[in-house]
Amino acid sequence: MKILVVEDDPMLRDGIVDLLRGAGHEVDAVGDGQSGAQMGREHAYDLVLLDLMLPKLDGIEVCQRLRTARPALPILMLTARGAEEDKVKGLRAGADDYVTKPFGVRELLARIEALERRIRRIPSEPEVIEADDCTMDLGRCLAFRGEDEIALTAREVGILRWLHRHKSRGVTRAELLEGVWGTVGTLQTRTVDMTIAKLRQKVERDAADPKIILTVTGVGYRWGFDTGEANESGD
User: Fold this and answer.
1) Which residues, at least 6 apart from 99, have a Cβ–Cβ distance to it below 8 Å?
2) Are strands 97-100 and 171-172 parallel, antiparallel or unpaired?
3) Full-model pTM
4) Which strand ranges, in their side-by-side order, compose the sheet holding 171-172?
5) pLDDT digit string, tens, across residues 131-146
6) Which residues of 38-73 are buried (b: 16+ CB within 10 A; e: fewer)?
7) What domains sit in the chain, N to C, each tagged with a CATH number?
């Protein structure tokens, strides 16, 4: 993959770059948020490793700018903070996953590999699903309701695709963590709930009374529509 590393600590940055290049990736690296946002917008990266605490522009702002400019770009946030609030902020800003410093080499590579597997599973042809007067173009990471165009994150697209693929049954939060996040046991199931709550705000007519993403008590979630889909690919 072509990866951008945005990290202000020069020793850590150089270490990550050497690690990733040794694993066969093409890597660029910058040391401040402003440069990171510019590079991420101007070049076609497959993944961004983004530190939370950066000079000139913090990681949250960089993440938001990149997510707006390139909705499907996978972002892995690096943070020295262990507080849940900081992790939540990163995920809400659009990060696909996070690693808390200090992290092990194997953990970082495993997270990157999980994101790489998810990238490879995305169909090359556009996948469009229509439900409850909402058109979800998963290939372009966009949703349309009326005249409104809504950007979807790669994680949100993964959730929609997974629920639709398994629409005959309910899926558990643990299954979504493994199938969409590509990780087992390293994130709390609350992460799934927070992401789905934000997704409902985007695609549902009324997030308080969802019709597309339904809650299954004691299980998790399920797809709410069996008809109305178009241009399906994959399953």
Assistant:
1) 76, 77, 78, 79, 107, 108, 111
2) unpaired
3) 0.54
4) 171-172, 220-223, 213-216
5) 999 999 987 889 999 8
6) ebbeeeebbbbbbbbbbeebebbbbbebbbeebbbb
7) 2-121 (3.40.50.2300), 128-223 (1.10.10.10)
